Amino acid sequence: MISNDNKQRVLSLIHEIEKSTVKHGDNDIAIDAVCRNITAESAELAKSNDSLTPILRTALVINRKESAMKVRYSRFRKKFPNITTLSALKQAMDSTAALEFCKKYLDINASSSAADNNPKYCLLRELTNGFLEYQKEHRFSSEIDALRHWSANVNPKKLKSDCIGKRHGVGPGVIGNIKLNLGERVVKPDRHAIGVMKEFLKVDISFDRYNEFAKFIGLDPRYLDCILFEYGKLNKISAQPCAEVRPTPSKHSH
């Protein structure tokens, strides 16, 4: 993958990343401390039976900052405590016009002509319908079992033949985000991770090898994902995302 000499160079640069500081609330905190906490949270997510969170958070984060997603996600859970499953979410979506759903449930002020094409709304519907169909087809007793089974078997290189991967707006970035929210130890190939890998670490490998790379240099992939993301965000290092939804201009609003 890379030479031993190059490996030491990369580890030295990663140590530099770890000691960089970011704002965490009102305090400055080293990236390594932030990422150790986030990595530890993965163990709890891996034990969770919550099927709604991975899908809702994934749909809300596309094309927006994570902080904006968190505000909308927290609002949704507070205002709609009875919607805790994908089945309940589907019922709400099926019984509510797109414009009203965007405003009422997602806090998105879409125009009447753009609501049906809002990327967050569209992805949420695609993922919800897709996983419920997957659960039914494979006869899983629970939604979370269906999500985890799919996640364990999806091949990022063969998305066109995957029941979820072939859906509109789904790509490696979306899949990576679902996996992270399921507590899996992976590197999500978003624009920050790709940018830091290529521009700062000078490691030019395909995104599907990022997990392998993390293990090669002795890091937990989830930890590497976090430090790449935090450092890229801090220094505005980014590359063209390999799997973000890129909606047609004028057909959506945030």
Question: Features of this protein?
Answer:
254 residues; mainly alpha; two-stranded antiparallel ribbon; 3% strand; disordered C terminus
Characterization of the model:
With 254 residues, this protein is mainly α. The protein has two domains: 1-48 and 183-254, no CATH class; 50-182. 57% of the residues lie in helices and 3% in strands. Strands 1-2 form a two-stranded antiparallel ribbon. A hairpin with a 2-residue loop joins β1 and β2 (27-30). α7 (119-138) crosses α8 (143-153) and α10 crosses α12 (221-235). Mean pLDDT is 90; it is low at 243-254.
Q: Tell me the distance between the termini.
A: 40 Å
- Quaternary state reads single chain
* Average pLDDT rating: 90
- Percent of residues in helices comes to 55-70%
Structural class estimated from helices and strands: mainly alpha
How large, in whole angstroms, is the Cα Rg?
A: 19 Å
Strand order in space, largest sheet: 1-2
Any low-confidence stretches, pLDDT <50, length ≥5? 243-254
Total count of strands? 2
What percentage of the residues does DSSP assign to strands (E)?
under 5%
Coarse morphology: globular
Q: Let me know the largest β-sheet.
A: 2 strands, antiparallel
How many discrete structural domains? 2
The ordered H/E elements are: HEEHHHHHHHHHHH
Tally of individual helices? 12
